[in-house]
Specification:
Elements: E1 3-10, H1 16-26, E2 30-32, E3 38-44, H2 48-59, E4 65-70, E5 81-82, H3 87-100, H4 104-137, E6 138-141, E7 150-152, H5 160-170, E8 173-178, E9 181-188, H6 189-227
Parallel strand pairs: 7-8
Antiparallel strand pairs: 1-3, 1-4, 2-3, 4-5, 6-9, 8-9
Helix pairs in contact: 3-4
Length: about 240
């Protein structure tokens, strides 16, 4: 019989003795996450649905279970999630399903798919706004920066708003790098203005040093002449 990996999301942290008791009662191999808020368990069953039911049957009285979810997609490529509903919620779902002419399972499946579609649409719109910000509000440079300022293309944060927020709010710089090295450096307008101001200050200080050096050079000649012994011609 195949083994199925099920993740148990807990309502609170579970560790030590409580975890050992649950393992002993269920008779199933399990491992806790580092923060103790979720548990992975291996279940022997014919399919994912039977595996999920088995976990509920053996552990619902031993662990504070919030949600069950398969860790890997099934043969149909779908991850399955099991969420416990109160009696009142179940009654409302059945009522809505009857009104829509569907079974409760079909009604929930359709509702979830529509919600995911709305989220994807919202994310796409947010990505477009973030991309427009990058193209119109930031300056792209091809100069290398410190290694700590570089960000590999494969590690660009998702969604794109996170990158925009990091650039726009902190005024920092990011160098976008690929496998062959730096591709470009993203500099916010705030940081670009700071760099321009710093360059102006540096040039001003360099000019002042040049002026001081020139003044000292003019003063050194008469001081040296004054310090020399006067030349006196000897009488013939």
């Amino acid at each position: 019989m195949p083994l199925h990996a099920i993740e148990i999301i807990l309502t609170r942290t579970v560790r030590g003795v409580e975890l050992k008791v649950a393992r002993r009662i269920s008779g199933m191999p399990m491992a806790s996450s580092h923060d103790g808020k979720s548990i992975a368990v291996l279940v022997s069953a014919r399919d994912e649905e039977l595996a999920i039911r088995k976990v509920w049957r053996r552990l619902q009285d031993s662990l504070p279970i919030d949600v069950l979810c398969t860790l890997f997609p099934g043969p149909d490529g779908i991850l399955r999630m099991s969420i416990p509903f109160t009696y009142g919620v179940k009654r409302r779902i059945r009522s809505w399903a009857r009104a829509a002419g569907k079974s409760p399972e079909e009604f929930l499946s359709t509702a979830v798919k529509e919600a995911l579609a709305r989220d994807r649409s919202t994310d796409a719109a947010s990505q477009d706004c973030a991309l427009n910000f990058l193209l119109h509000s930031c300056t792209w440079l091809d100069l290398p920066l410190e290694i700590t300022d570089r960000l590999a293309v494969s590690r660009l944060p998702l969604p794109l708003e996170n990158l925009v927020r990091r650039i726009s709010t902190s005024g920092s710089r990011l160098a976008i790098t690929g496998d062959a090295g730096p591709i470009a450096t993203l500099v916010s307008e705030q940081e670009l203005k700071r760099l321009d101001d710093l360059l102006a200050i540096t040039e001003g200080e360099r000019g002042e040093r040049d002026n001081v050096s020139g003044a000292r050079g003019h003063k050194s000649t008469p001081e040296k002449c004054a310090g020399e012994s006067p030349h006196v011609e000897e009488p013939p």
